[in-house]
Amino acid sequence: MADLAFQPTMIREDKTARELFEAVKANPARARFGFGEKLAVVNVDFQQAYTRPDLFPKTAYVTHPDQIGFVNRISQLARQKDMPVIWSHVAYKPDSGDAGVWGTRTDTPDSLQNIRYDSERHQFDPRCEIDEARDLVFTKRMPSAFFETPLASYLVWHKVDTVLVTGGSTSGCVRATAVDSLSHGYRTIVAEECVADKHESYHYANLTDLQLKYADVVSAQEVMDWLASR
């Protein structure tokens, strides 16, 4: 008969999500996946709905002030090393009929399913340096950049073994993409300065979980140093 006196509980600590992440980062509990031989940069949803709090304060978020600058520099280095750069963005048709069950949660002017293809919210942030001739750009409809998109086959064709995920939000589309990346068999990297979320607690709680389970959370400088050394 089971010992009814034993009642497991969740660990509780009087630390912020950021403090917990810093502790995990300083004392990693898992071996790193590390970089392989060929990396792809997957830049998730750098569109104005999420990057321009001056235009869309209800939906946009900024964590590191130079997030897009880091992403541009990493993407440029990747191109110089003949490694693919990918940009996703999210949008739906006028009746939101392709938003699926996700589109049933809210119906307000600033809600997800009201990002239209021809809207300001859908457009990429003009600070993003996208090479239209070389980069892969596609629209997605669900959190993961892998779900019902050309990403998986594109990575196979380019013989990629490592995926770097940037963008937002850390707790949403970045996390979903990182988990799918690992599930597809890729070494998965998240550059800390290159991802963002609406609230510090969501951001750092998910960075902690990614670091413990699904990805290596590293500095943008480490990624740039690795690319420069190839």
From TrEMBL:
<dbReference type="InterPro" id="IPR050272">
    <property type="entry name" value="Isochorismatase-like_hydrls"/>
</dbReference>
<dbReference type="Pfam" id="PF00857">
    <property type="entry name" value="Isochorismatase"/>
</dbReference>
<protein>
    <submittedName>
        <fullName>Isochorismatase</fullName>
    </submittedName>
</protein>
<keyword id="KW-0378">Hydrolase</keyword>
<dbReference type="InterPro" id="IPR000868">
    <property type="entry name" value="Isochorismatase-like_dom"/>
</dbReference>
<dbReference type="InterPro" id="IPR036380">
    <property type="entry name" value="Isochorismatase-like_sf"/>
</dbReference>
<feature type="domain" description="Isochorismatase-like">
    <location>
        <begin position="40"/>
        <end position="222"/>
    </location>
</feature>
